[in-house]
């Protein structure tokens, strides 16, 4: 297949491969090769490529109503909002197109709340190595190395502290603080958990100080770590929650959920042309129904344990480091900067994996990945490691 790659702006390094079709855990390119996909659009395709429930929901909704403007209610929007608020225990929702947009909305909501309820407070404490998106505000909130020199001047008001350092968080909270914002597991940093104990202590600290706790579950939400939302494993609720990636199962859909007491947007404060679009929210309903089905999350936990154990064995065989993460969001520490070379070697063998940092690999397969596919991935990665050695 001839492709005019030069017609696209260069924003990342891509192999000269054009994918035409996806099915479950597999992608097929224009040359007829197939690839076992353990990236899945960066944890987006939570049910795999082209799952039947999602395809059916999109086709049925596309034949009924695609868009009617966010100035009106539509049935899938209302149903998904009700389902998410019921599942999360957070009373209000706002739909967006991407995780960055949901986080941008969370920042706005927290700042308005701070202006109204905390004497004009606007700062949001965030964490080193955190990642919240690529808008100017979400880049400013992120702690990704190197970003502090991009697109200056940044949006001010995001003091950063080390992940896991409760004392540093407490020292950073002052009269200007409206909220603390973090990922329960830092995905782009290399699947680095904040730690259950730290997250519980952080919830207690924010309540004590009277500031909001915002959890960015763009990557950890929708069953990725073995529960519908990661915080459900911790015994508390945040004040604000953001979802994306897996929420749409492959289509652009994200959500901001918040406690009733925090919701202070007025008409005109927040919006978007495609927010709550019936086609996208119909997809979200199909995904939520599938992930909430009896036994689904138990299977995620079991498959995650199988993948983790296999990675531990592979690590011991090749002299790598620790396996981190939870459920089907895992990383393998390599101990040396060979991640990009391993990604390339795996690609040549028909295996798609990701290296968020030169010294580690990240695994984000479909939540429906089979045990046999996990074993096949481990064999392919073992071969790639051997070839690289």
Describe the protein's architecture and organization.
This protein has helices at 40-43, 52-62, 75-88, 99-117, 136-141, 166-172, 196-209, 278-291, 296-318, 339-348, 371-388, and strands at 19-23, 26-29, 34-37, 92-96, 123-127, 160-161, 177-182, 185-186, 192-193, 212-216, 240-243, 254-258, 323-326, 329-333, 351-352, 354-357, 360-363. It has 389 residues and is α/β, with parallel strands linked by helices. It has a seven-stranded mixed β-sheet with strand order 4-12-11-10-7-5-6, sandwiched between helices. A four-stranded mixed β-sheet has the order 1-2-3-15. The longest helix is centred in the last third of the chain and has 23 residues, at 296-318.
Give the helix/strand layout.
Layout: E1 19-23, E2 26-29, E3 34-37, H1 40-43, H2 52-62, H3 75-88, E4 92-96, H4 99-117, E5 123-127, H5 136-141, E6 160-161, H6 166-172, E7 177-182, E8 185-186, E9 192-193, H7 196-209, E10 212-216, E11 240-243, E12 254-258, H8 278-291, H9 296-318, E13 323-326, E14 329-333, H10 339-348, E15 351-352, E16 354-357, E17 360-363, H11 371-388
Parallel strand pairs: 3-15, 5-6, 5-7, 7-10, 10-11
Antiparallel strand pairs: 1-2, 2-3, 4-12, 8-9, 11-12, 13-14, 14-17, 16-17
Concise synopsis of the structure shown:
Helices cover 36% and strands 17% of the residues. It has 389 residues and is α/β, with parallel strands linked by helices.
Which regions contain 5 or more consecutive residues with pLDDT less than 50?
none
The percent range for helix content is 25-40%
Q: Please state the CA-atom Rg, rounded to the nearest Å.
A: 21 Å
Number of helices: 11
Average pLDDT confidence is 96
Beta-strand portion reads 15-25%
Overall, the morphology is globular
| Distance between the amino and carboxyl termini | 34 Å
Count of individual beta strands: 17
């Amino acid at each position: 297949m001839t492709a005019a790659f030069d017609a696209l702006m260069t924003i990342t390094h891509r192999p000269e491969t054009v994918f035409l079709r996806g099915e479950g855990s597999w992608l097929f390119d224009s040359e007829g090769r197939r690839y076992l996909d353990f990236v899945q659009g960066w944890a987006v395709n939570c049910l795999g490529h082209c799952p039947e429930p999602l395809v059916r929901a999109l086709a049925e909704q596309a034949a009924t109503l695609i868009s009617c403007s966010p100035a009106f209610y539509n049935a899938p929007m209302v149903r998904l909002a009700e389902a998410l608020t019921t599942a999360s225990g957070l009373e209000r929702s706002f739909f967006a197109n991407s995780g960055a947009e949901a986080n941008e909305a969370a920042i706005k909501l927290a700042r308005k709340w701070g202006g109204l309820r905390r004497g004009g407070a606007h700062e949001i404490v965030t964490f080193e190595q955190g990642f919240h998106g690529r808008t100017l505000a979400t880049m400013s909130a992120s702690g990704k190395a190197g970003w502090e020199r991009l697109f200056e001047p940044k949006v001010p008001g995001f003091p950063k502290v080390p992940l896991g350092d409760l004392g540093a968080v407490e020292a950073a909270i002052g009269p200007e603080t409206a909220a603390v914002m973090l990922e329960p597991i830092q995905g782009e940093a290399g699947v680095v958990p904040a730690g259950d104990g730290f997250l519980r202590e952080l919830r207690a600290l924010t309540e004590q100080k009277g500031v909001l706790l915002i959890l960015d579950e763009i990557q950890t939400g929708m069953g990725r770590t073995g529960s519908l939302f990661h915080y459900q494993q911790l015994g508390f609720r945040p004040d604000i929650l953001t979802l994306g990636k897996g929420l749409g199962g492959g289509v652009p859909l994200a959500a901001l959920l918040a406690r009733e007491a925090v919701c202070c947007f007025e008409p005109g404060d927040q919006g978007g042309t495609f927010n709550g679009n019936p086609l996208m929210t119909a997809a979200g309903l199909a995904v939520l129904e599938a992930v909430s089905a009896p036994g689904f999350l138990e299977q995620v936990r079991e498959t995650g344990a199988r993948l983790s154990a296999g990675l531990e064995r592979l690590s011991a065989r090749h002299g790598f480091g620790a396996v981190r993460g939870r459920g089907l969001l895992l990383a393998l520490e390599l101990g040396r900067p060979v991640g990009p070379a391993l990604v390339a070697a795996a690609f040549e063998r028909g295996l798609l994996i990701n290296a968020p940092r030169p010294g580690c690999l990240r695994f984000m397969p479909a939540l429906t990945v089979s045990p046999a596919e996990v074993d096949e991935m481990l064999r392919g990665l073992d071969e790639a490691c051997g070839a690289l050695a």
